[in-house]
Amino acid sequence: MDSWVRPDWPVDVVALTTTRAGGVSAGACGSLNLAAHVDDDPKNVAENRRRLRTALALSGEPAWLRQVHGATVVDAARDAGAEADASFTTEPGVVCAVLTADCLPVLFAARDGGAVAAAHAGWRGLLAGVLEATLDALPVPNGELLAWLGPAISQPAFEVGGEVREQFVAERPESAAAFLANDRGRWQADLYALARLRLDAAGVGEVYGGGYCTHGDAERFFSYRRDPGCGRMASVIAIRPNDRESALNA
Description:
Distance between the termini: 8 Å
Strand order of the largest sheet: 2-3-6-5-7-11
CATH superfamily: CNF1/YfiH-like putative cysteine hydrolases
């Protein structure tokens, strides 16, 4: 769909983040809610997921996960439905997927398009090491991987307490630069900067994306901080099949 957000990276894989447009859900979940765990009619979610499959010409479902803000990574071809916050695959046509509505979706792809992954990285996941765990799971040297940072809440909209900043700084002192003090005695956290610091330290040299704000762009994006009853966008990535006319020609 034309409204979807696609990575600006030089690798030939299928990758995108949906927006809230193009579905059948109503209210805070309107309209393309792809999450089954929010307060939405299951029939609406099923139809929205069908529309995603149709738009991507998928023969089956993406490997949806039960996300818990942790650092578990699974094989998307074998462990769809697992409790995890990232998945990877080296099999063409298998679709890695994460759901977000302020947390940071991070997509990974090998330079040759032969391995991909998707990670759900809110501040808890970043601190738990979900990006590093995803890199460890991919059978590709970190220097041969590209990363894309999808739509997430921006620093001006993301207020956290001092205890969050302290945890990041205690683990990685350079993280201090990703927090700005506000006039309420709290901190504005930059998820994009925190992710880039970790990816850089891991040796991922090409990082794309960033610059979105789910909280500030209510027309395009769901935002949990703006509306706790909201739906979720999906960030998906897949290796193209050899027969590109048969599937995944989004």
